[in-house]
Amino acid sequence: MKFHYHLLINPAAGSGNGGKKAEKIIQLLDDGNYTYTPYYTEKPGDEKALVERLGALLSPWSATCEENHLDNSFHLLVVIGGDGTLHEVVNQFYNLGLELPVSYIPAGSGNDFARGIGLSRDPEKAFEQITSALQPQPINVFRYEEKIREESGLVLNNVGIGLDALIVATTNASTSKKVLNKYHLGSASYALYLVKAILTQKTFPILVELNGQSLNFERTFLCTTTNIPYFGGGIAIAPMADPKKDTIDLVVVEKPNLPAILRFLIQLLRKKHTENKHYKHFTSSRIRIVSVVPQHGQADGENMGERSFDINFSTTTQYIWYADKRTEK
Question: What's this model's pTM, rounded to 2 decimal places?
Answer without folding.
Answer: 0.90
